[in-house]
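We modelled the chain as a single entity of 226 amino acids. Its sequence is:
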Amino acid sequence: MGCEKCGGRGWILYKKDGIDFAKPCECQEVMKARNRLDASGISDEFHKKGFKNFSDRGKEVLRNARLKAIEYCKNYPEIKNTNRNSIIFMGQVGSGKTHLSMAICNNLMDYHKVGVIYMPYRDEITKIKQTIKDEINYQNALNRFKTCQALMIDDLLKGKNTEADANILFEIINYRYLNMLPIIVSTEKTKDELLDFDEGVMSRVLEMTKDYQIEIIGEEYNYRLL
């Protein structure tokens, strides 16, 4: 969608005392986010995920998950600067958690002009750990996820997790928690399993998502088994 404020240029032109000036438009963050998605190689798949093409397969639990995701997007302008501005999808593999998370991200970028960074948890944690001996590169790798307008963490705690993973997650989550920066999370873990991993980190996640927690339990919700 084109930006109504700048006409898609990324800059807002204006005059002051007869002199032409330009200032960055807020849509620049969205443009940067879209470019990062293009570079990641997942952009086509990501862009296709919306609320209209999410199938609840006649399951009330999945229908309610979709409605909760839509409600989150509608309420985003009112909650974005609060400490409960985030959403999490937990539980069953193959239930569409990532689809709904991506649909939210596309909605935030297209309609609310929010720059969203996508973080596939296992891949990015591994990359960050590879920079840990280089303080500058390490902080640069962390800052990408700490300071973005909105962060989607896909498959949180996927695979075997270590103390190093917990430390990295703490740096990212605690910064966003303190600065009221939203997260959109999908995870196969239940609420109890998240807390068992690291109560300090995950209690922050659960507080940020307190009003938007969707937990899907049961193999009958796994579309891959149909």
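As a brief sanity check on the tokenised model: The longest helix spans residues 60-79. The mean pLDDT is 92.
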